[in-house]
User: Fold this.
Amino acid sequence: MDKPLPQGISAQTFAAAVSEFKDAVGAEYVFTDDKAHLRSYRDAYSTLDDSNFAPSAAVAPKTVEEVQAVLAVARSHKIPVWTISTGKNFAYGGPAPRKAGYVVLDLKRMNRIIEVNEKHGYAVVEPGVSYQDLYDYLQAKGIKLWIDCAAPAWGGIVGNTSDHGAGYTPYGDHLLMQCGMEVILADGTVVETGMGGVPNSKTNSLYKYGIGPWVDGLFTQSNFGVITKMGIWLMHEPPGYMPFMVTLPREEDLELITDIILPLKLNMVIANGALTADLLWEASMSTTKRQYYTGTGPVPDSVRKKIASDLKLGMWNFYAALYGPPPIMANNWKIIEAAVMQIPGARIYLDEERKGDTGWDYRVKLMRGIPNMTEFSLLNWVGGGGHINFSPISAADGKDSMNQFRMIRERAHEYNFDYIGEFLIGWRDQHHIFMLMFDRMSDDEKARAHELFGVLVEDAAKLGYGEYRTHLSFMDQIADTYNYNDRALWRMHETLKDSLDPVGILSPGKMGIWPEKMRDKQS
Assistant:
């Protein structure tokens, strides 16, 4: 098919813009060849035809000045640009733009680690810096700081944080650990947030709020500006680290473990991003569905029991860790052990009992901030490796967890898919991640997966559950579920969008936020 052009832009105007983009960043960093370069800016795992997200071009600036120049060209020709950092967010749409025809503003060349302060425990990075990059830097320099990484090592720190991502150490709330930003507005203005508003500030990576409204959050999951620098707090290497796992034999044990863990979390006995993963999530790290079941539809209970027995897994599997001086860990461990062993059939595993097990080693690394790519083993569970994440928030409450799990599992089974999920406990909430796996080579499976996802959005909204992040295809639908008081929240977002980006060039449609000129026209 022909490469799409931005909506309402003629071929002549687009050619002129491409020429100006080349003047701004260099011809070698403007990509227009669909076969040679632009294919990498599509969503390889979409439930729709990837032409729905095909860009017309991509441009990769290196500096703030080059970003400003790119935005000036976009304003001049009214061409929408879609900002990405490292472009690896494959469960939610990857490096693709929201709609066909947008120009991808690719910030991966902005990959400097600007500062690391070991004493105060922070780093300042550009958008192209991945978790692996920062980890390698700390290791090479012998700096005794731990990062908190997303599950895939190639994820970008700025991208994951701005998408409200979460991790697995005590610093697992990534946006909470963010401190200070440099943002370029649509008109080219460079803004330093928080304490960075003071010239030559000495504290812009130490205190988040500055004076006046705290605005950093406005630039996350939004299209109000382009983040070109971010401060992130890092954890001092603790004197001790003790990971553990609890296997739980029954489906209903999700309720018990959630209610047992909540007070331990709130009182910081367990400080990290602890999680409860279902059997198939853990099994997929080391096996495939076809090794156990060649039939159609979800894995039967009898097969699930066989998998659990073979791999020494529970129907649910809880992971957490202790950190700090050994005497403190020993005292806290007594409390934890007594609490979890109230669950009939629960079994605790420590490192010496599971070392070498793929799933265990993966979790142990994540809970101490070592990036890795093991989670992509999940893609082997079904042929074709397609996946999309449905991510509602649950209360950290046993009954609430069970209600949400059963709602999603029943729908998944109705559409002939396995339930593969985990609950990541934050403070008082749980991030419930349902990994909807499908064969991306099968048009039928893609269509069923797409329909299922849309149904889940509506089911969740009726029960009062909202999603915390989502795939490109479902941004408008999910935004529409945040409709209290005649969409008051989204009307405020739209007012901000029209004020900060009146031409409407920055990521139109990001999280359902459209500029005025495009409202009621999106598809």
User: Anything to note?
Assistant: Residues 443-462 form the longest helix (20 residues). The mean pLDDT is 96.
